[in-house]
Design brief:
Number of strands: 17
Shape: rod-shaped
Keywords: Kinase, Phosphoprotein, Transferase, Two-component regulatory system
Order of helices and strands: HEEHHEEEHEEHHEEEHHHEHHEEHEEHEE
Number of helices: 13
CATH class of the largest domain: Alpha Beta
EC number: 2.7.13.3
GO molecular function, one term: phosphorelay sensor kinase activity
Strand content: 15-25%
Radius of gyration: 54 Å
CATH architecture of the largest domain: 2-Layer Sandwich
Structural class: alpha+beta
Number of domains: 3
CATH topology of the largest domain: Heat Shock Protein 90
CATH superfamily of the largest domain: Histidine kinase-like ATPase, C-terminal domain
Catalytic activity: ATP + protein L-histidine = ADP + protein N-phospho-L-histidine
Largest sheet: 5 strands, antiparallel
Pfam family, one: HisKA
Length: about 525
């Protein structure tokens, strides 16, 4: 062969060389190639063979050279050769390509075959083992499938964009976060969800992700994102870059940090107002301590009073019973009768106290039963006043009542409202001086009952005494259980249960009971009851 450098460029200009030189050069090239190759006539006769360390037919070349491919080649390869020869008869300048599987050492392997027509009319085929390439392709497809599955089911929004800022992938979390379907955003600009108008510190969309950007760094970027409905939210963007055949791609992980921002603001607020918070909590603790001490004081006072109230009548009953027993045969009948009267009075006092305690227990457990009927509030009031006439006459107390002919009708439990009026008037008689009066007048009012939302028509009473009044800080406390006004000292007659029981009864009637002080002196108790109970039952 001509060794002149200008005449050795057979691969670039084969047309200027004799065909036999070109053919020889091609054969030399093929023999240096690690692939297996076969040479055929156009009739399918095998005329030459180059073995490969990776591919072989496990036959001696003498067994198939000179024979038709259908006799010398395995069946699967003979079918491919026949198809290739037919194809190349009319398309001599093209390449026929195919892949096939074969068994080698009990292992399935893959190969690709390429058939071309040579200058002298022969057909040559090259066969390359591509088992490793197939394995890598399968691994890549599995990895890609795994990545897509992970990306689709990730908790954060994942978006893939190309170097032209166009969205190429949009996972389910992104669809939920932004309100778009993936089909709505494919090939749309990333500015659709990360608008530059809301992120003025970035000049272009590429500044969000490009490694060439002056804003690029390893730390996530905090941006403002926009949903389909034009609402915006704070987000954190983390960027990853990877290369593909079509160019550089960018994976963006977008996380909604709205809650985190609020938590950070709250922490900042607490950190900068810690001293104020400590002072407030200290103040709250002081108030709670005072309330607890006050409650403890009132409970102790109640126990002292209730102990006294229980022991006094019991002591009187036992003492006079013992005295009567000793003097039964020596004392005159009048003296014995006096003993029995004291025993009777003490027993009734003890019974009243126990009934109050039982009423309180029933009210607290919700077991108090009421019989609501239409009654006259004025007649009820007069009945209670007549009951207490002896006490009033003894103290020279005058009761003034609005005694018009109008009936003061309402639906209530007669016995329980008598108990309420009895407690209110008894409370007044404890504190007002002798030779004074109690004024009672009727009122009509629309009010909102406790735990209700609508006004109802009501009728009621205002009972004013001319005593010392009630300390302002005790106006609500006197209705609490175990609590009396601070004007009541241990040993004073009364347990502090009457007004508490009265308010509970009135509340059960969907009414109101409260106390106030008159501007000219004395206390005023106001009782209001709904005219009809039907709306509440």
């Amino acid at each position: 062969m001509n060794q002149d450098p200008l005449n050795t460029r057979i691969w670039q200009t084969p047309e200027v060389f004799p065909p036999e030189d070109v053919l020889r050069e091609l054969e030399n090239l093929m023999r240096s190639n690690p692939d297996l190759w076969l040479k055929f006539t156009t009739d399918g006769i095998i005329v030459d063979y180059k073995p490969s360390r990776y591919l072989n037919f496990e036959k001696n070349p003498s067994e198939f050279i000179g024979k038709h491919h259908s006799e010398g080649l395995p069946g699967y390869l003979s079918v491919i050769a026949e198809e290739a020869i037919r194809y190349l008869q009319n398309k001599k300048n093209q390449v026929f390509w195919n892949e096939y599987k074969f068994i080698s050492s009990q292992e399935t392997r893959h190969a690709e075959a390429r058939f071309v027509v040579l200058y002298d009319g022969f057909i040559v085929s090259t066969h390359r083992d591509i088992t490793e390439r197939k394995r890598l392709e399968a691994a890549f497809l599995e990895s890609e499938s795994r990545f897509l599955s992970m990306a689709q089911n990730a908790a954060d929004s994942i978006v893939i964009i190309n170097s032209e800022d166009k969205i190429q992938f949009f996972n389910k979390a992104a669809e939920k976060a932004f309100g778009y379907k993936q089909t709505d955003v494919l090939n749309q600009s990333i500015e659709l969800i990360l608008p530059l108008t809301e992120n003025a510190e970035y000049a272009t969309a590429k500044d969000y992700y490009s490694s060439d950007s002056i804003f690029s760094n390893q730390a996530p970027k905090e941006l403002v994102a926009r949903r389909k409905d034009d609402t915006i939210f704070s987000c954190e963007l983390s960027i990853g870059e990877f290369k593909t055949n079509s160019g550089t791609m960018y994976t963006g992980i977008i996380r909604d940090i709205t809650v985190r921002r609020l938590q950070e603001q709250e922490i900042f607020h607490y950190r900068n107002h810690l001293e104020e918070l400590v002072e407030k909590q200290t103040s709250d603790l002081k108030i709670a301590k005072e309330v607890a001490e006050d409650a403890s004081y009132m409970k102790s006072l109640f126990l002292a009073n209730i102990s006294h109230e229980l022991k006094t009548p019991i002591h009187a009953i036992l003492s006079y019973a013992e005295l009567g027993n000793l003097k039964a045969f020596t004392a005159n009948p009048e003296k014995i009768q006096e003993y029995f009267q004291i025993i009777d009075s003490s027993g009734k006092r003890l019974l009243d106290l126990l009934e109050n305690l039982l009423d309180l227990a029933k009210l607290e457990s919700g077991k108090m039963r009421y019989v609501y009927e239409k009654n006259c509030l004025k007649d009820t009031l007069k009945y209670v006043i007549n009951e207490m006439a002896v006490i009033m006459n003894k103290k020279h107390i005058l009761v003034r009542i609005d005694d018009s002919e109008e009936r003061w009708e309402s639906e209530f439990d007669l016995e329980r409202i008598q108990q309420v009026l009895r407690n209110i008037i008894s409370n007044a008689l404890k504190f007002i001086p002798d030779n004074t009066s109690i004024e009672i007048k009727k009122i009509n009012s629309e009010f909102i009952p406790l735990k209700k939302t609508q006004y109802v028509k009501g009728i009621g009473l205002q009972i004013r005494d001319f005593g010392p009044g009630i300390p302002p800080e005790d106006l609500d406390k006197i209705f609490e259980k175990f609590i009396q006004s601070r004007q009541v000292k241990a040993g004073t007659k009364g347990t502090g249960l009457g007004l508490s029981i009265s308010r509970e009864i009135v509340n059960d009637h969907n009414g109101l009971l409260y106390a106030d002080n008159h501007e000219e002196g004395g206390a005023i108790f106001t009782l209001i009851l709904p005219i009809k109970q039907g709306d509440f039952i």
